[in-house]
Specification:
15 helices, about 425 residues, single chain
Length: about 425
């Protein structure tokens, strides 16, 4: 691996590590001062924002990383902003029309009283996300990391402000902090991308939209299936035991997912690099190296997370969240598989083959539905965690089969060699 990539990976990992620490602090204050039910509602709101972003990101999402080196920035800016406004307006209309129909509160997609806030969060985040993705497309990974740091630090500090200064002790404290973080980081990011608006270019708007829509549709269908998998587990848990259990499962998921920052950090730099390459052979070699690194490091982190005794989690998050350790152990294999899945996904997107990510997500969905309904009733939250691990295993098996076939490589190349270790050590030393 080139030392520049290692340097960017370490910078991104440091950013994600700081984010994990801030998330831990936020989780601690949330579990102590807001309670399990409020934390469950906050988790559902955040997940609903992620789901609604799927429509926005058809033209204003990760696909921007791929198109930024290839299209006029001004054209991408105009398309993304207009599309974001149109989609959020459409969501508002749908929510208004569905509100005219009486329904069971337990079946509401968005928690009662948060419809307007969810729409606002979706719109502001879509603008912030445009900044992040286009900076990655420009290979400005460091600036992307700084904006992300501004986002999560602002979220954490503002939540503490809402709890202790404004004395808000419900889900509003968490939701308002999300909005504050998105607004501040968006405005900061705007100062970084403004210079590129001079690049008007001569790209056809409609031609660009067609390309972006074709690319983005596949990516967002993939995300939709993945998010529905998670949302379904929340709904089933809520249906059996209510918001409090959703809060415990959400807290356990947050801690268990913290080691995936390794895979995310590696994959983000990988995507930025591969999107600017025209050599698929080099892209596949980079991917294999990063795949081994991400999987091994994530596994080490998961072992550390799981060996911490239940008494520690009970002491840190109160006895109401004691069951979260069992959830984390059930999720552990899935998080390791997830790191490999993330690297594969960014390879396929980076070489303009995102359809294989969609097929992988569909494989996961086919596995998820029976797994959830078979495992949650008898095993509860632990069953939900096991279903995630089974699903992620099925996904990476499919992705490996496709990756192997496309690049004509053998399974032996996944073995860690002395050369891999030496190369990694040399790259680390050269980047320090």
């Amino acid at each position: 691996m080139h030392f520049e990539m290692i340097k960017k990976i370490f910078g991104t990992f440091g950013t994600r590590m700081l984010n994990a620490i801030c998330n831990f602090i936020t989780l601690w204050f949330g579990t102590h001062y807001l309670g399990a039910e409020a934390w469950g509602v906050g988790g559902i709101v955040l997940l609903d924002v992620s789901l609604l972003l799927i429509g926005v990101e058809l033209l204003a999402g990760p696909g921007l990383v791929y198109f930024t080196p290839r299209k006029s920035f001004r054209t991408l800016f105009e398309i993304s902003y207009l599309w974001s406004a149109m989609v959020v307006a459409f969501y508002a209309l749908v929510i208004y029309l569905t509100s005219l129909i009486q329904s069971d509160n337990n079946l509401e997609v968005i928690p009662e009283g948060y419809h307007g806030m969810v729409l606002l969060l979706v719109f502001i985040y879509s603008l912030h996300n445009f900044n992040l993705n286009t900076l990655l497309g420009k290979e400005r990974v460091g600036t992307n990391n700084i904006l992300f740091i501004i986002q999560f630090l602002t979220q954490m500090c503002s939540m503490l402000f809402y709890i202790f200064v404004m004395d808000i002790r419900n889900a509003d404290a968490f939701v308002f902090s999300l909005l504050t973080g998105y607004i501040v980081s968006y405005l900061c990011g705007l100062t970084q991308i403004w210079q590129y608006l001079k690049d008007k270019g001569d790209d056809s708007v409609w031609g660009t939209i067609k390309e972006m829509l074709r690319f983005g549709t596949i990516i967002q269908l993939t995300n939709m299936v993945s998010m529905l998998n998670k949302r379904l587990s929340f709904l089933i848990i809520k249906g059996f035991w209510g918001d409090a259990h959703v809060g415990v499962y959400n807290a356990g998921s947050q801690v268990a997912e913290s080691p995936k920052i390794v895979g995310q950090s590696i994959a983000m730099v990988q995507f930025s690099k591969i999107s600017n390459l025209n050599d698929n052979d080099l892209a596949s070699k980079i991917t294999v190296q990063l795949l081994k690194t991400a999987t091994i490091l994530t596994a080490i982190c998961m072992v550390i997370v799981c060996v911490i005794p239940t008494s520690v989690y009970s002491w840190v998050f109160t006895n109401n969240f004691a069951a979260m350790r069992s959830v984390m152990i059930a999720l552990a294999p899935g998080m390791i598989f997830m790191s490999a899945h993330t690297v594969f996904c960014h390879f396929f997107s980076g070489v303009n083959l995102p359809k294989y990510n969609l097929y992988a997500a569909l494989v996961g969905f086919v596995v998820t539905i029976p797994a959830l309904y078979l495992l949650i009733p008898p095993f509860g939250m632990v069953g939900a965690g096991i279903s995630v691990s089974i699903t992620n295993l099925a996904i990476i098996i499919y992705q490996w089969i496709v990756f192997k076939k496309i690049n004509k490589i053998s399974a032996k190349e996944l073995l860690v060699t002395k050369e891999d270790v030496k190369s990694l050590i040399a790259a680390i030393k050269s980047s320090i």
